[in-house]
Specification:
This protein is 65% helix and 0% strand. The chain has helices spanning 3-15, 17-23, 28-49, 65-80, 88-100, 105-118, 126-147, 153-173, 175-180, 188-193, 207-229, 237-260, 273-291. The N and C termini lie far apart (40 Å).
């Protein structure tokens, strides 16, 4: 048994049931790489929040967030440099980066997203929120594209769009939970337009107004989901199937939030197993169409979508 892969598999099954279900649709090699990449991403998120697999408090919370972030940067840079490690999470990270030649800029950009949380970054505009979404999820989409063998710039941008869409959905689902720990990712300008004080998001009196802002954010998510769909023809069938399924499952989370309206946060929005199975079946047809008919068609441009500027040469 490969203990590194086994540990990574356990982390994804406990930490993200939705992504775990979709990841099973990959071929074995891609699936194992997805598990190992997820393990490092999950670990980083937990380190920053002082949690374990997204829940509860960990002993590391005794350290300051700045100290935990600095430790994460050191361990990540050490792993990127190929230095030996006895931590199964960072050994997994080393393997997946080396196996798929993932540029160091992307893992480090993810850490910049964690730093935004540590520093209490303020999100005044939609563009501010999209920048955060890129750093904590868009770059994960890009790294997953590398795992799936994609290298073309346009494909990487579609992969980033997928991550951004997922994160916009997560923000919409977790508005009240985030507010409870002092984090507000909804654009402050939108909240102001809706008459919601920035420090009163969790106040029941403003639930309807907050929901109107969340609806706008879910409309934005739909635009990025549509763009991500256009990237499926650039993938192999099994990869296109897994991504189409994940896209459908997470989009269903947003649909559930919409249907609940101002009661969206009375209970966590969760997609049922039968619905996930339905999305997997639908994903087969979407993947088949993507790798056959749609490969012969020109994809529509990403007109009007936010794009992270490319780094300057040599940076």
């Amino acid at each position: 048994m490969d203990t590194v892969v086994d540990n990574s598999r356990t982390m994804i099954r406990k930490g993200s049931k939705s992504f775990s279900a979709a990841a099973r649709l990959f071929d074995r090699s891609t699936r194992e790489s997805a598990y190992m990449l997820y393990a490092w991403c999950r670990h980083g998120d937990d380190v920053i929040d002082g949690q374990r697999l997204g829940f509860g408090a960990d002993a590391a919370a005794a350290e300051s967030a700045d100290e935990r972030l600095a430790s994460l940067y050191r361990a990540t840079r050490s792993a990127l440099a190929g230095e030996p490690t006895d931590d199964p999470v960072f050994e997994a990270f080393q393997r997946v980066v080396e196996r798929h030649r993932i540029p160091a800029r992307y893992p480090l950009e993810l850490l910049e997203g964690f730093a935004m949380d540590v520093r209490g970054h303020r999100y005044d505009t939609l563009e501010d929120t999209l920048l955060y979404c890129y750093h904590v999820a868009g770059v994960v989409g890009v790294m997953m594209a590398y795992v799936m063998g994609a290298r073309e710039q346009e494909t990487l941008r579609r992969a980033s769009d997928m991550g951004i869409a997922l994160q916009l959905t997560n923000i919409s689902r977790d508005v009240m939970e985030d507010a409870g720990v002092g984090r507000v990712y909804l654009p402050a300008q939108w909240l102001e337009q809706a008459g919601v004080p920035g420090d009163a998001i969790a106040d029941p009196r403003y639930r309807g107004a907050v929901f109107s802002v969340v609806e706008r954010l879910l409309d934005e998510a739909d635009r990025y989901y549509d763009s991500a769909f256009c990237g499926l023809p650039d993938l192999g069938f099994r990869c296109a199937w897994a991504i189409a399924t994940a896209r459908g499952v997470y989009r269903d989370i947003g649909s559930l939030v919409r249907r609940r309206g101002a009661a969206a946060w009375d209970a966590r929005a969760v997609v049922s197993r039968p619905r996930k199975a339905y999305r997997a079946l639908l994903g087969i047809g979407q993947a088949l169409a993507a790798v056959s008919v749609r490969r012969m068609l020109e994809s529509p441009p990403r007109e009007g979508l936010w794009t992270k500027p490319d780094p300057a040469p040599g940076s």
